[in-house]
Amino acid sequence: MPELPEVETIRGGLEKKIVGLSIKNIEVLSPKSFIGDPELILNQKIVAVKRRAKILIIDLEGDLSLIFHLKMSGQVIYEGKGRFIGGHPTKDMFSELPNKHTRITFNLSGGSKIYFNDQRRFGWVKVVADEKVKEEVQKMFGKLGPEPLEKDFSLKAFKTNLLRHKTMAIKVAILDQAVIAGVGNIYACEALFLAGIDPQTRVKDLTDLQIKKLSDSIITVLELGIKHGGSTITKFVNAEGERGSYLDFASVYNREGKPCKNCGTEIRKIKLGGRGTYFCPNCQK
Ligand SMILES: [Zn+2]
Q1: What is the pLDDT of residues 169-215, one digit of tens each?
Q2: Cβ(262)–Cβ(174) under 8 Å?
Q3: From the CB of residue 144, how many other CB atoms can be counted at a distance below 10 Å?
Q4: Could you tell me if 265 and 258 are in contact, meaning their C-beta atoms sit under 8 angstroms apart?
Q5: Helix 185-195 crosses helix 208-227 at what angle (to 10 degrees)?
Q6: pLDDT value, residue 88
Q7: Which H or E run contains 193?
């Protein structure tokens, strides 16, 4: 699954290309990949491209939206003036489209197209009433905590949610989507390093200042991820079809045994809640 910065990067790329265009025709090549009645959205103008957690949302005029869940192997490819790709990279994504992994083709006004490709067919696109979008996303992830990159993100709500997991290791707690939305393994490790917090620390042992620092650090690493087009290790490419390069800037993730960029101590890897966790035992207390 892509992490938040990858989906945000795709969103931003698509927004520049498709807002104002309308959907002229939809070819559903794999019925499993499209949920809803395609007829309902024909000739509708695209008014916005949004994101909630790791879900991409194309908002149409009228009261319907299209939601995209990329899952393991989904790709969203825009073809018009150039080709822009977001999602799991494959060799065939630069070749002629549609290809054998194309599940849906959206033909847009002006002749451009959006392809939804998905090798493993776990992903899907669904027609949803605008007022049901929130509910749909909740069905997928459970109740979602605050969005770290939204203007109304509240430290208070984050802290309240965290304190429901008093005895949990902080690293495991921030991966809970009900605590904060959209933070995956890479960004959880990086945010804890930036905040100088040992990932094994129990939530109840954190000071208010540490929680504030952690909240700021989550925002900083996600923004840095978007700036660099996401992370390479998740094999997601950005809307320009370039591999993300965030991991070139990662301080701890996937750097076991390498010297800490801050103090030179060897980065350690442990398992917490079943997930690989990287940290500097000297910088993170
Ligand atoms: Zn260090």
Answers
A1: 999 999 999 999 989 899 999 999 999 999 999 999 999 999 999 99
A2: no
A3: 18
A4: no
A5: 130
A6: 74
A7: helix 185-195
Is residue 246 a contact partner of residue 225, using CB atoms and an 8 Å limit?
A: yes
Distance (angstroms) between ligand 1 centre and the Cα of 196 equals 9
Strands across the sheet with 46-52, in order?
Answer: 34-35, 124-129, 64-69, 55-60, 46-52
Cα torsion angle, 179, 185, 186, 189, sign: positive
Distance CA 225, CA 249 (A): 9
Q: What is the spatial distance between Cα 169 and Cα 162, in angstroms, rounded to a whole number?
A: 10
- Tell me how far the alpha carbon of residue 278 lies from the centroid of ligand 1, in angstroms: 11
11-20, 204-213, 235-244 — which is least confidently predicted? Answer: 235-244
Q: If you measure from the C-alpha of residue 277 to the centroid of ligand 1, how many angstroms do you get, rounded to a whole number?
A: 15
Any residues with CB less than 8 A from the CB of 142 and at least 6 apart, and which? 177, 178
Active site residues: 2-3, 54, 275
In total, the chain counts a number of residues equal to 285
Element (H, E) at 188: helix 185-195
Q: What is the 3-state secondary structure (H, E, C) of 6-75?
A: HHHHHHHHHHHHHCCCEEEEEEECCHHHEECCHHHHCCCEEEEEEEECCEEEEEECCCEEEEEECCCCEE
Q: What is the spatial distance between Cα 215 and Cα 220, in angstroms, rounded to a whole number?
A: 9
Which pTM was predicted? 0.82
Is the confidence at residue 241, as pLDDT, over 80? no
For the chain, how many helices (H) and strands (E)? Answer: 6, 12
